[in-house]
């Protein structure tokens, strides 16, 4: 760690949280609209106001976008207003922003709430804010329970929003509110003339047919109708819509959920795309720490567009408002900085999570995908109004650093030295972990099966696959197993899969073992990419006999080349192994053995056979630890006693390169050759080492070469960014 601490004294490491499709060898065209702001029409950008879910995150933050798809945080993702000064609790959540009817004034409302200090209530107040420039805000606290004696018994005042009522010529504020243990309901009232308080007694806005709870209302006007989006609770949970031709009454429920996920959601926010007939519906997948974006032309049918969305922050329940180029320029002048502009590089060939910015020496290092043409390369910096970046055309990066000059408004320009380097680690863009790798004889390709990572608390609920012909360039094959849709016995914690290819009655069959809800299941398919059909029940759902603790996770399947018998290994805190029956979906009775090699064993067993030796590999320490490390032992049989050599480290951190948390591996042998590679995950680079426990579920997959000594010992692997070159199968 000492090397890294030294480096950190001089570097501020920043990375972008970005999920995007994996691209092939050819350099793809920069697919974004934010290179140049759209200018036809009154609005050319978007302001996203939000809070974050991290500690002390209950404060208003701003982000900008030119296209409604790619958002960049302003002010280093720090608050633009001091919650302690504008609220009674010291925290604000669920900010909603609105352009006034006069086109000169802006209004914000937010929940007055501080869960870090007071937990989940009771909450009595909201915050009202008004501005004429989006930078300076007047604020007022409104305690509903104190203001209206009729509501002295309320204990929730949540998620207020504002809309202009053209009939009343006033600003209507609506929010969800609860009395005692009754269901939450959506109420409304009107703000006074200077937007400092509420002038009428609140009334119920929407009457849900089942009188059930509804929260997080968001109203948008389209084609003469008011569309009220809200979250249902109690019987069923998700986002529904009610429609009326009047703002304050007559809402008729459209009785279907419109979210495009099985995960819990809240905080619906709708905005119209500039110069388009389409709308964006976004919402908070709050159990996963994720936001989902969908698009619609009719506000009835919605299509997920997550693969096209980028953000360098983790928002919670926010709203988006279209703004003009002049307004965007004022915001960048106030809160943008040159470093964030450098980190906005949007070319699809860039590994967005792996950009490294040195804010002392003004250097930016870009890592790019295999096959990128660096002789003519444009990073694609995000140019918001009021910002200039020169040069603005493709440059030759093969001769060293390229100088870029960044100017924000009338501030002093800053010059950065930008380098671009082709690296093969991580092997796929985005957050993935616990990699399993397979060479499929059916089609002569390699397949990668990881845990889908990047979800708070390891809460991912689906599995993907990737394919390659050379272990360097990978194709995203999409979701192959979705727990909410495809598995009846578990809906969460999709972890650590493994797979084996077998010939059954002359045809290839694939058996996919996976952890879900701390149990191990199995699904089958006729293709390496599915569709996979779950067995319908867990294969392993309890601890082995005499094992007192641990989890049923991290399965590994192994076929003994000497006998043709098949084995399954699993365990967290213990290593268990058993022979599989010929059906490959059940364990042979009385074959389960506890094989835990030593007291340091944690999880992630992987078994290979080479030159008469069975090698058992496993991970030690916690996956959240920088010292998460792979070790090994050997045996003379698949269920035999494991001998652990004195020097038994397979791979561990490389502090000099900023690589930490290297573990949970698989191994691939090039068919017909004594050529081996280790596939493992690491903390996301460079930000992982400063993320704390969150590094343990923000990981990425890498490959390096695995070698053996003449007497069969595994030589310790040094993890790299460079990775391996393309593997030739013939």
UniProtKB/TrEMBL annotation:
Keyword Hydrolase: yes
UniProt entry keywords in alphabetical sequence: Carbohydrate metabolism, Glycosidase, Hydrolase, Polysaccharide degradation, Xylan degradation
Stored Pfam families: Glyco_hydro_43 (PF04616)
Alphabetized SUPFAM superfamilies for the sequence: Arabinanase/levansucrase/invertase (SSF75005)
Keyword Hydrolase: yes
Family classification: Belongs to the glycosyl hydrolase 43 family.
Protein known as: Family 43 glycosylhydrolase
């Amino acid at each position: 760690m000492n090397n890294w601490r030294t480096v950190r004294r001089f570097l501020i490491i920043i990375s972008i949280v970005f999920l995007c499709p994996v691209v092939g060898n050819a350099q793809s065209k920069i697919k974004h609209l934010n290179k140049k702001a759209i200018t036809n029409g009154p609005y050319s950008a978007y302001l996203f106001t939000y809070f974050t879910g991290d500690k002390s995150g209950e404060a208003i933050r701003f982000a900008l976008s030119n296209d409604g798809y790619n958002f960049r945080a302003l002010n280093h993702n720090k608050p633009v207003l001091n919650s302690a000064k504008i609220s009674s609790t010291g925290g604000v959540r669920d900010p909603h922003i609105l352009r006034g009817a006069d086109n000169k004034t802006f209004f914000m409302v937010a929940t007055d709430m501080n869960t870090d200090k007071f937990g989940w209530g009771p909450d009595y107040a909201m915050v009202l804010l008004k501005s004429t420039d989006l930078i300076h805000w007047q604020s007022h606290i409104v305690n509903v329970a104190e203001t209206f004696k009729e509501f002295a018994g309320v204990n929730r005042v949540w998620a207020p929003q504002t809309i202009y009522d053209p009939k009343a010529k006033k600003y209507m504020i609506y929010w969800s509110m609860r009395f005692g243990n009754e269901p939450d309901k959506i109420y409304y009232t009107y703000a006074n003339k200077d937007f400092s308080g509420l002038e009428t007694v609140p009334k119920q806005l929407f009457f849900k047919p089942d009188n059930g709870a509804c929260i997080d209302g968001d109203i948008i006007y389209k084609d003469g109708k008011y569309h009220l989006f809200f979250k249902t609770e109690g019987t069923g949970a998700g986002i529904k819509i009610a429609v009326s031709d009047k703002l304050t009454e007559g809402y008729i429920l459209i009785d279907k959920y419109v979210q495009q996920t099985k995960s819990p959601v809240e905080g619906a926010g709708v905005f119209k795309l500039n110069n388009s007939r389409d709308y964006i519906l976004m919402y908070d997948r709050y159990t996963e720490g994720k936001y989902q974006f969908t698009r619609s032309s009719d506000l009835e049918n919605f299509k997920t567009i997550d693969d096209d969305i980028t953000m360098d922050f983790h928002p919670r329940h926010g709203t988006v408002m279209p703004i003009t180029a002049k307004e965007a320029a004022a915001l960048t002048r106030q809160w943008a900085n040159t470093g964030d502009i450098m980190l906005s590089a949007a070319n699809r060939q860039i590994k967005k999570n792996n950009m490294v910015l040195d804010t002392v020496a003004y250097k930016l290092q870009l890592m790019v995908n295999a096959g990128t043409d660096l002789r003519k390369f444009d990073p694609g910096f995000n140019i918001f109004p009021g910002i200039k970046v020169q040069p603005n055309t493709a440059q030759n990066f093969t001769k060293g650093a390229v100088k870029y000059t960044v100017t924000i408004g009338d501030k002093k320009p800053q010059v950065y030295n930008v380098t671009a380097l082709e690296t093969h680690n991580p092997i796929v863009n985005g957050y993935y972990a616990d990699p399993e790798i397979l060479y499929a004889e059916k089609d002569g390709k390699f397949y990668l099966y990881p845990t889908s990572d990047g979800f708070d608390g390891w809460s991912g609920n689906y599995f993907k696959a990737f394919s390659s012909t050379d272990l360097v360039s990978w194709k995203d094959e999409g979701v192959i197993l979705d727990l909410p849709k495809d598995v009846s016995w578990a809906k969460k914690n999709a972890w650590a899969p493994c797979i084996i290819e077998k010939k059954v009655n002359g045809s290839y069959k694939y058996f996919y073992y996976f952890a879900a809800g701390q149990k191990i299941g199995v699904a089958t398919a006729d293709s390496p990419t599915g569709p996979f059909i779950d067995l319908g029940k867990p294969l392993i759902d309890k601890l082995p006999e005499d094992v007192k603790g641990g989890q049923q996770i991290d399965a590994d399947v192994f076929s003994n080349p000497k006998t043709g018998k098949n084995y399954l290994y699993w365990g967290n805190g213990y290593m268990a192994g058993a022979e599989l029956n010929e059906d490959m979906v059940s364990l042979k009775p009385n074959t389960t053995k506890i094989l835990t090699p030593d007291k340091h064993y944690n999880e992630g067993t992987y078994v290979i056979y080479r030159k008469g030796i069975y090698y058992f590999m496993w991970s030690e320490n916690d996956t959240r630890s920088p010292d998460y490390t792979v070790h090994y032992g050997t045996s003379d049989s698949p269920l035999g006693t494991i001998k652990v050599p004195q020097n038994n480290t397979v791979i561990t951190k490389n502090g000099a390169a900023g690589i930490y948390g290297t573990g949970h591996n698989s191994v691939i042998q090039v068919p017909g050759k004594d050529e081996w590679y280790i596939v493992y995950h690491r903390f996301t680079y460079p930000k992982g080492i400063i993320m704390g426990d969150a590094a343990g579920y923000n990981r990425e997959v890498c490959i390096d070469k695995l070698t053996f000594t003449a007497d069969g010992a595994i030589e310790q692997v040094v993890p790299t960014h460079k990775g391996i070159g393309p593997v030739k199968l013939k």
